[in-house]
Amino acid sequence: xxxxxxxxxxxxxxxxxxxxxxxxxxxxxxxxxxxxxxxxxxxxxxxxxxxxxxxxxxxxxxxxxxxxxxxxxxxxxxxxxxxxxxxxxxxxxxxxxxxxxxxx
Length: 104
Hints:
By secondary structure, the protein is an alpha+beta fold. It has a domain at 12-83. It contains 4 helices and 2 strands.
C-alpha cells in the first residue's frame, strides 16, 4: 500500500494562515472593470469588504500594500491571524464604513 501525502494549502498573503477556503479578491472591484485578483482566505476577504466600500477600494486601496496600510483592516487581520483557519471568523461591518441605501 502506498501512502498519499497531503499537500498543505498555501498561506494567505494577509494573515499567513493556511488558506483552506481560498477566495479571489479583485484589487479593483469588478463593477469598476477590475480584473487583477489576489488569492486570499475567506476571512481576510470578508474583512476587506467589511471595512472598505468598492469606491474606496477603487480610488485608494487597489494594491496589497495600500490595503495593509489601512489601520482598521490591519487590526482585523491581526485578530484573524490568531484564529483557527478551519473555522469561519464572524465579523461585523465597521461603523466607520459608509452605508448603502437610505441611511448613507
